[in-house]
């Protein structure tokens, strides 16, 4: 696999998938999918959104095989699992979408989305581009928001500023960002594109758009 690309397999049992989604059809509000290159400020904006509307949204916590970063907690930012555990979930057809990036697996489980729905909250999904494509194939009726950096130079500076990237991982993320930006330009790829040049402006635009969907 070329460094920085996502590999994706859709080995989902369609009949089982349909059964699992039956309960989701009663949820009054469709899930909202947030995507965008790493470093565009997704986490910061989502934290502000949840703080502004504490009883409205629920975050679908994804599974990943990568190691936690400093300050990350299991079950909060991600469900951190071993490769073996992730593969067991694949065998159980547990994921709506899954992807592989920089040697690590990521996936959104059916159970995670249902858990949010069962609480009567609007489910927010923070997923990769290939995951977006797969969610579009479901009957969830999700809305798709893309967070875009003001420029590749600005994105590179943000990633370097985090102090968590190696030379290889930085290159991988920038290569992937170019692919995601190219996909975002396709008609109908997303319902809303927000450029995060200024945090306050970006949050206001995100907040107003999401609230308009409720």
Automatic annotation (TrEMBL):
Residues 29-211 form the Guanylate kinase-like domain. InterPro entries: GK/Ca_channel_bsu, Guanylate_kin-like_dom, Guanylate_kinase, Guanylate_kinase_CS, P-loop_NTPase. Pfam families: Guanylate_kin (PF00625). One of its GO terms (molecular function) is GMP kinase activity. Signal peptide: none annotated. It comes from the Eukaryota. It is an enzyme of class 2 (transferase). Its EC number is 2.7.4.8. Keywords: ATP-binding, Kinase, Nucleotide-binding, Transferase. NCBIfam families: guanyl_kin (TIGR03263). Belongs to the guanylate kinase family. PANTHER family: GUANYLATE KINASE (PTHR23117:SF13), GUANYLATE KINASE-RELATED (PTHR23117). This is guanylate kinase. The lineage of its organism: Eukaryota, Fungi, Dikarya, Ascomycota, Pezizomycotina.
């Amino acid at each position: 696999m070329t460094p920085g690309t996502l590999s994706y397999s859709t080995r989902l049992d369609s009949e089982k998938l349909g059964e699992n989604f039956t309960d989701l059809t009663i949820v009054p509000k469709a899930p909202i999918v947030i995507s965008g290159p790493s470093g565009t400020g997704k986490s910061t904006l989502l934290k502000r959104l949840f703080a502004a509307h504490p009883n409205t949204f629920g975050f679908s916590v994804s599974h990943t095989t990568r190691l936690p970063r400093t300050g990350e907690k299991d079950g909060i930012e991600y469900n951190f699992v071993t490769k073996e555990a992730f593969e067991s979930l694949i065998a159980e057809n547990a994921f709506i979408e899954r992807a592989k990036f920089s040697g690590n697996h990521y996936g959104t489980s059916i159970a995670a989305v249902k858990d949010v729905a069962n609480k009567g909250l609007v489910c927010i999904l923070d997923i990769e581009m290939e995951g977006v494509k797969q969610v579009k194939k479901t009957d969830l009726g999700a809305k798709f928001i893309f967070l875009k950096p003001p420029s590749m130079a600005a994105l590179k500076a943000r990633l370097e500023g985090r102090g968590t990237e190696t030379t290889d991982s930085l290159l991988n993320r920038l290569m992937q960002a170019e692919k995601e930006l190219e996909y975002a330009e396709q008609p109908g790829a997303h319902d809303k594109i927000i450029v995060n040049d200024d945090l306050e402006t970006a949050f206001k635009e995100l907040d107003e758009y999401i609230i308009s969907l409720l």
